[in-house]
Amino acid sequence: MGPMSVADAPAIRKILHVDMDAFYASVEQRDDPSLRGRPVVVAWRGMRSVVCAASYEARKFGVRSAMPALRAERLCPQAVFVPPDFSRYKAVSRQVREIFLRHTDLVEPLSLDEAYLDVTHDKGGIGIATRVAECIRAQIREETRLTASAGIAPNKFLAKIASDWNKPDGQFVIRPGRVRRFLEQLPVDRIPGVGRVMKARLEALGVTLVSDLWRFEQDELRQRFGSFGERLHERAQGIDERPVEPDHLVQSISTEDTFPEDLPLGELEPHIRRMAEKVWDTARAKTPRIGTTVVLKLKTAQFRTLTRSHTPEAPPVSKDEFVAIAIALQHRVDLPDETRYRLLGVGLAGFREREGEMEQPDLFVD
After folding, report:
1. pLDDT value at residue 240
2. Are the CB atoms for 305 and 335 separated by under 8 Å?
């Protein structure tokens, strides 16, 4: 076989990461003109509530999503708190996804407000990824009266970083020939998976920028950090071969709730029942596949997290059976009776085809 010709070489992928700007808060400001230009925090009020989203006006005061609502209120006393309305957000999300699908069938939603798109071969034959992104953002603006930002790059890792570069209502392209220059001054904690602990470990090695990783061989990073070391090496080189996957199979479904007041184990049964029923109904609506592992998650008042799971010989086939297993799992919690719990989660995992092989991925990631 002769050498591969240019015509036979695989095309460089054109990946978009499209991210709606302050999505929940922007929907609220769009639908209520009195909120426009004001610091809006989408959150329930309460001791245990957390911020779902913050408008850009609120972000100027340091308010961020996942922040305790009480802290957000201290940072921005003039903020307008709006309870979330997920039915409206989901409706807008469906509108946005319909726009995506006009341009490519390769759409991988990450959440209600962001998705990856592979536009290597876009439906409209535009051929230039930056123009496709401009077209998508213009259609979103026209049809939803909301704005989105986009990152354009040869892979998902870089596209996701790029979408945050010119926010809000902007886009940024990382061209294949400029990947190394872009990565050179990028802080290492922009690599997914490099959190506070990993960042400190890397800093101890003198690594603060992605380019600092270039002096390490892959084997050395693997020895220090296991399989994550391999990923660090690849991302530092700008490598990410993951495809855009439009049809994710459901692997796990769960729900969790933080109580207004800490509760003892003996008072959790009605909450387990309620949450298990919700998980079962969601699973039946989402997938014909069957879940095989029931999971109970608890977090104590001291923030200790524990999980209990059970995989019966035959998967649960009814809501009552699933609820009964979830309730029974509380009897496998062996902490002292006086222990109080602040959070409860119930899940169904290990989904498989009814005649397929069983798989049991992790359900909860702390």
Report:
1. 92
2. no
DSSP helix/strand/coil, 81: strand
Higher-confidence position of 50 and 97: 97
Catalytic hit among 114, 230, 245, 261: 114
- For 177, the 3-state DSSP assignment is helix
- Give the pLDDT score at 354: 62
Catalytic-residue membership of 234: no
What is the overall mean pLDDT for the chain? 89
Name the token pair of 306: 């524990």
CB atoms within 10 A of CB 117: 29
Q: Quickly tell me which residue has 């090695």 as its tokens.
A: 205
pLDDT at residue 254 tops 50? yes
Q: How far apart are CA 111 and CA 106, in angstroms?
A: 15
- As given in the structure block, the two tokens for residue 174 are 């990382």
Helices (H), the chain: 23-31, 56-59, 69-75, 86-103, 129-144, 156-163, 179-184, 196-203, 218-225, 227-236, 269-286, 319-328
Nearest partner of 358 among 321, 349, 171, 172, judged by Cα: 349
User: Does the pLDDT at position 209 exceed 60?
Assistant: yes
Q: Which two tokens stand for residue 75?
A: 């940072």
- CB hemisphere CA count around 306 (13 angstroms): 15
pLDDT value of residue 190: 92
Report CA dihedral (142, 144, 148, 152) to the nearest 10 degrees. -70
How many angstroms separate the CA atoms of 119 and 171, rounded?
15
Per DSSP, the chain holds a count of helices (H) and strands (E) of 12, 12
Query: Is pLDDT above 50 for 332?
Result: yes
With a cut of 90, say whether residue 79 has pLDDT above it.
yes
Q: Do 51 and 63 form a contact (C-beta atoms < 8 A)? A: yes
The answer to whether the CB of 171 falls within 8 A of the CB of 133 is yes
Q: Cβ(193)–Cβ(240) under 8 Å? A: no
Checking DSSP bridges between strand 340-349 and strand 293-300, what pairing results, if any? antiparallel
Q: State the CB neighbour count (10 A cutoff) for residue 21.
A: 18
> What is the C-alpha to C-alpha distance for residues 264 and 340, in angstroms, rounded to an integer?
5
Mean pLDDT of 225-241: 90
